[in-house]
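Please check this today:
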Amino acid sequence: MTKKTFTKIDITRELSSVSGVSQKELKPLVDDFFTSIRQLLMKDVAEDVIRIEVRNFGTLEVKPTKAKPKARNPRTNEIVYVKAHKKTHFIPGKLLKEYLTKPL
């Protein structure tokens, strides 16, 4: 199985070809977009879950996890304590989910 990694530059190129706007003009906008998403996900708010929903794409969530006093390191079988922390979760939107569930 091979892996293809896309970066912000690839997103800028794709957006440029779709919109007809130059890559030079779009680069700061793409950077600002991802900076805004990151800042929203990193916000300290009173709610437990931070959720960014983008129709026809998907939902990004930041959820708290519970502390695990008896987790196990699978390599050494050592019992370790894992502190409570936050984790991210992506839920694909309807169009993306339909594409991903098609048989290969």
Remarks:
- The radius of gyration is 19 Å.
- Residues 1-42 form one domain.
- The first strand starts at residue 50 and ends at 54.
- The chain has a mean pLDDT of 93.
